[in-house]
Amino acid sequence: MSLPAFFSRLFSSHSTGHRSDNGLDTHQLNNDKANRALTKLSNRKPLKPKPTKPKWRYYLLQFFITLTLILSAVWLLMAIWYQFGGHSVLTWLITLTVIGLLAALLAMRLWSSMTEKLICRLAGSRKINSKKISLKTVSKILIATYTALWLIGLGWFFSIEAQQERDWMPEVAERVTYTRDASNPDLITLTNVRNFDWHTDTEATERWETRTIDMSKLSGVDITNSYWMGPLIAHTLVSFRFEEERPLAFSFEIRKENGESFSALAGFFRRFELSLIAAEERDIIYTRSNARGEQVYLFPISNLQQHEVRALFESYLTAADELNAKPAWYNTLTSNCTNIIFYMARLVSDDRLPWDYRIWVSGWLPNYLHDAGMLDTNPDKSGQPWSMDTWYERTHINPKVNGFDPKFPKDNPVADNDNAIHNSDFSMQIRQGIPIPPLDDAKK
Which Pfam families does the entry link to (predicted)? Predict the structure, then answer.
């Protein structure tokens, strides 16, 4: 072999790589294997993509959507039931329609999920997508139908107007009105002041009276809490004290129709009109402490000036004007016997009364007043401050009026002098053992 041929063969083996025993080089073998592998991959069926699991945000969104649908349906159905009653054909028709729509939506959701899993195993992705589109379309139609029905119900609910003329129960049949003396604006003559003789919790001798008060003689305010449903729920009344005159009580109450009973739940659904009652304490407190057996407590409010008491009294007169001009609905949460008083008191107290959750938990109103500095911490000036336990013990009305006779001393309903004396006796009796604070103006 010549020298040029030897070097040519040597360089050729380095540049082309090693050859196999059958004379084929290694590079060529590797290319053949790669080509065969690609051919197999091209003939193999495509792999199905693994379904991605929804994230926690998806489940949270679904939960809130479901909760919203259920709560909105419950609200609408309860409004229908409290307005039309369980015997109305309309009540049952709307109930079945709403339940049917929600049941269909739920069934669509469950069926869609189960169907997708089954189709993922048996069919291709194109069929799954077409199935999804059809299910989504039906779901949108159902949701749109339910939304339209609910919005119609919402509009109907807020179109319900309170009424002045119904078959009212005797104790709320009349509305308090008033006139001012032309020569002395402090002299207010109130008509339809209630002064019933209560024999039982439902039977009473009716008496509506006219009474004239002098606002310049206002001497203080008392808050009365009457517990009838455990320690959290109480009815709140406000009594205005006068110099040398018996107190006058005001109470925001539901205006019940004959045969109607109170329901806290129904109070959310425009079932009861709101009523303002001006009454003698011998009537409106006695019926709770004695006739009904509720636990009643009276708290004298401290650290008040006369202009604040006058402004609060004026706010009651304004409320009477507004209710006489246009009746309003009672609402268990927003317009009840306690928080209406709080709204008025904040207007005249220069925001000395802070917002607090106890405004909506009426049974804890005395504790709130104590913490806000509206109850004297040392009312009897003994040096020993009163705790709330002491306040509740001293202000408990029931033991003080346990044997009180609600009837007038003489069997004469027009004996005004006996009437006034008997009313004053009750007012003095419920304040036994309670130091009555003077107004801050009177201390100077």
Answer: Lnb_N
